[in-house]
Amino acid sequence: MPAATDEGRVGVFLVDPEAPGVGLEAGIANNHERQFQLTLSGAEISPEDCLGDPNSDEEIIPWVVDRAQTALAALQLGVCQAALAQTAEYTTDRKQFGRPIGTFQAVTMRIADAFIDLECMKSTLWQAAWRLEEGLPAAADSATAKWWACRGGSRVAHTAMHLHGGIGADIDYPIHRYLLWAQQIGLTLGGAGEQLARIGGAYADDGARPQASA
User: Tell me, what DSSP letter sits at residue 143?
Assistant: First the structure.
C-alpha cells in the first residue's frame, strides 16, 4: 500500500494482514470474489517491507500501476476469450426454425464485432507488455490496454450473455459469471473514462509520451 514517510515522500510498502494494528473487513464483490477493506492503527513495518527506493518519491506508484493495468488487461482478455468461445459453441448447437442460431445474420454480426474487440484488446495488451519488457515508457500504453479491457471487455461479455438468450440471465448457468467478472476487472484501478483522462493528460503535456520509471 502507498503511504507518506516522515520525510514527506511517498512509498509503497508490504503490510502483513495479521500484524498488530492491521484490520481487515471482509466483503463480497459483484463477481462473488472476497475482498477486504484495510484499516491501520499503529501498525509498524520494517525497512525490508519497502518496495523500490523510498527516495524515488512517487515514481514507484506509476511503476506499479503500469504493470497492474497491463495484468488486468491480460486477465480481461482471457475472460472474454473464454466467454466468446462458450458462446460460439452454444450458437452452433442451439437451433431455431430448424437451423443453428449462429447462422442468423444478426447473431453472426454480433459475434464478429466481439471478435474485433478481442483483437483490439489483444494488440493493445501486447504493445503495453512489450514496452514494459523493453524498459520503455508505457504509461499511455498500459492505460490504452486497460481502456480496451473496460470498453471491449464490457461489449464482449454483454454479447456473450445476450446471445445465450434467457438462459444467459439464469444464475444457475455459468455464462453470467463472465459478465460479472468483466465488470469487476473494468472498474479496478479506474474505468474507461479515467483511462482516457490519463492518456489525454499525459499527451497534453507538449505531446510527450508519459513517463513511468522503475
Answer: H
